Amino acid sequence: MTPVSSSAFHFDSLVWDWPIAIYLFLVGISAGLVTLSALLRRYHPEQATADSTLMRTTLILAPCTIIFGLLILVFHLTRPWTFWKLMFHYSFTSVMSVGVMLFQVYMAALAVWLVNIFSEQAIVLQQRWLPKLTLFPKVLGWLAPMQKSLDIVMLLLAVMLGAYTGFLLSALKTYPLLNNPILPALFLFSGVSSGAAVALIAMTCRYRRNPHSDEAHFVHRVETPVVWLEIFLLFAFFIGLALGDDGKQRALVAALGGGFWAVWFWLGVVGVGLVIPLLLKSWANRQHSPYGVLAVCGMSLVGVLLLRFFILYAGQLTVV
């Protein structure tokens, strides 16, 4: 059924609301930044040093966005004080439990990976604040030869995390729009797109006089095919609904057949998030001023956030 809604953000079949959209957005940024950083270390290790803007941005935002996103998720629960049980009672048949395991492994590996990359800075901090912890430099010495392996592990974990947010929603079988196998790939690529936008904003803010550094060129080379893949996946997502059963077709009509969320999608997700950035990208890349890059990346980032809101809310309009 398609419920009668009192407003676009409050209707009978709504279970997950805006904090979940923010959570999905933040997790995507973390996964996207780590994916880009791991690729930079794999293909351009000479650029992926501790002085790299991309690596520094990943150092700060990759763990912070995950932590903030999880805090939003925990406090959004009906009984947040019971969340700790998920951290110790695993079930491979529960998507949420598998996600908790993935988050734990991801955060542990991320900490080791980042400390190893920023080992010199970490040792300075250790000698200043924990001088008696003499084992710390030795551990970093043991980890140093494993850096390439850690890069691969982090790339795999970041891809899994980016896709997991889509699996989390696609497991909701009573919502035909969300119960879609393309959703994990769509969330993965849009997450990488958001990570690229954040990285380019950081690079532009750091090097205002030269917003087109070698690092920025690398991010652009990754970002361009990712955006086109995102567009293709969006197209395939809706084609799959159109060719699906009656429930999926009704979900498609409810989402794009008119009304608030159809306008949200076409003007926000497609217009602001995809079309305008693609049209302005070549112009922004020719400018020596940072404002063009900031505007394009800002719109791309907003577009990804709007996509999360659209998928979450429009996906819950129709129940079977």
From TrEMBL:
Quick one: a GO cellular component term?
Answer: plasma membrane
The subcellular localization recorded is:
Cell inner membrane
Location, primary (coarse class):
membrane
- Carries keyword Transmembrane? yes
Q: How does it sit in the membrane?
A: Multi-pass membrane protein
Question: Which superkingdom heads the taxonomic lineage of this protein's source?
Answer: Bacteria
* A Pfam match: NrfD
What are the alphabetically sorted keywords of the record? Answer: Cell inner membrane, Cell membrane, Membrane, Transmembrane, Transmembrane helix
TM ranges are 20-40, 60-78, 98-118, 152-170, 182-205, 226-243, 263-280, 292-314
InterPro entries per UniProt: Electron_transfer_protein, NrfD, NrfD-like
Keyword Lipoprotein among UniProt keywords: no
Primary role? Probably involved in the transfer of electrons from the quinone pool to the type-c cytochromes.
Family membership, please give it. Answer: Belongs to the NrfD family.
What's the protein called, per UniProt? Nitrite reductase
Q: Which species does this protein come from? A: Pectobacterium betavasculorum
